[in-house]
């Protein structure tokens, strides 16, 4: 799996769930399909009067989720930005051409209430619960996303390109406090922990369920 | 459309998108299908080690979105609560029996890392963009949801039952400042504004796009 394939899959899925936070800090979620995909960016349409638009203008943080027919989950985290004034019409016309149903929803000049947002820098997580062991991977679009979290040196891939941000790691890791007892391995539903001192979680197969974390007798398992 | 049918539709859709806010106040979204439906409540399973679980325990606010094959969007807003200790096993076993794939993900005793949350009080929005005019309606499960928003008297249905909260209204309304010019009606993509003084938006067909709001020459259109 790779970034380009993930974006293609999102495009084929078509109708995606967009999560934002509202003015009260509460989660909001909508289905959006008025989307155009470029190799390095995603453009989407909404109307200026919608609360969704206000949330994007005032906060901007968005997570986008697609679920494929192959039971893959593809999740994109980003900050949406309003597209430059002089490019609004170009992308709006393109999205309306690609999604003819939009002309039924916004006939004639009423589409002028529309606004185009774009996503250029994002983190994309691929997650497949239907294989054994489960599989996950994370990719960076553009410069990735800002994060307050600092990742431990040992979980950094170490191959971050200049100008790119790190992948925000999630899940668990086993620290040097490990005594090699193997209890974590026995408690892992996905059998994704390898022996050694310290034992090692294979992050691409980890559910992030916390079983190893709860069972470790010496608290050697840390949350990332 | 009604509450009971909406819950049935969510059940048939199966895989729903759950939005929460994380510890940084950012939106988070996941697909969840480990769900059991009762007439008056929804129970769902996750693992104690997941960030999703932590977000539910620390904040609890959740929006759940389902998209049907008939292109209906059903959105539930609520506050998830951890199910009572003595009922955890009962619902967990039921969810695992109803969703056999879960036993592949959490074999044997590893399911003990699970935790059951429940939703009893919610607001449910039904939205269909594929009909003309578009159609939307809102229902209350249990006591509904808390809201900081006060709705104008004229948009209240006036039929709130004792012990229930109001539906949180969204969109726009036309106030008595209306001069009856009809510009709003001409600008409405869904032709859902009726003549009169004041003109009236039929809320069940309103996109919430904001066209009437932006075009009214006397600012008689207000956001709810």
From TrEMBL, chains A, B:
Keywords: Iron, Iron-sulfur, Metal-binding
Domain 4Fe-4S ferredoxin-type, chain residue ranges per copy: 169-198, 199-224
Coiled-coil boundaries: none
GO molecular function terms attached to this record: iron-sulfur cluster binding; metal ion binding
Pfam families according to UniProt: Fer4_10, PNPOx_N
Domain of life: Bacteria
InterPro entries: 4Fe4S_Fe-S-bd (IPR017896), 4Fe4S_Fe_S_CS (IPR017900), Pyridox_Oxase_N (IPR011576), Split_barrel_FMN-bd (IPR012349)
Transmembrane intervals: none
Name of the protein in its database record: 4Fe-4S dicluster domain-containing protein
Native species: Sellimonas intestinalis
Origin organism lineage: Bacteria, Bacillati, Bacillota, Clostridia, Lachnospirales
